[in-house]
Amino acid sequence: MRLLQAKDTDLQRVREHYRNIIENTPEIHKHSMWEVDVHPSEQDLKDYIARGAMYLLLEGDQIVGSMALADGQDPDYALVAWGRELPEEEVCSVHILGVSPDLQRRGIGGRLVDEALALGRAKGKKALRLNTLSSNTPAQHLYASKGLQLCGEHRVPRYGDDFPSFYYYEYLL
Predict the structure, then answer these.
(1) Can you tell me whether residue 54 is helix, strand or coil?
(2) pLDDT digits over 74-90, tens only?
(3) Closest alpha carbon to 23 in 54, 32, 160
(4) Fewer CB within 10 A of the end CB, N or C, for the chain?
């Protein structure tokens, strides 16, 4: 397997990869807020690709996993008591990490986390951060197994009180 930074020409393949994940992963709506062409939207994917933040894990020519590794962090992350207070430019954050449904539970998610940690270090970041729904136990187990520390649980105000809370994880690089 090899990790590549996505290019503009990869957009349709990336969209299809996420469509496959959303349509074919059992209990996807329990574990994420992903919806076809809503989250991640085509514009989200274009933006990640344009910023050089979209990464694809390939087996041959097939996308088996993907993620966005963004510089900085979302404003919601300010709610969290992190292991170390750091300026925005010293942090990277993982978003939309996904694995092809027929290949889940085979170490690909762990490989993506390892790649994100390596990329963060190579960029000179001091911490990698991410969040996941409190109902996403598979992701929680993955992140804990990779040494990420649970730093907090919060409801994100923009989603309302009826929406599940998020768990926030950090790995100090």
Answers:
(1) strand
(2) 998 998 999 999 999 99
(3) 32
(4) N
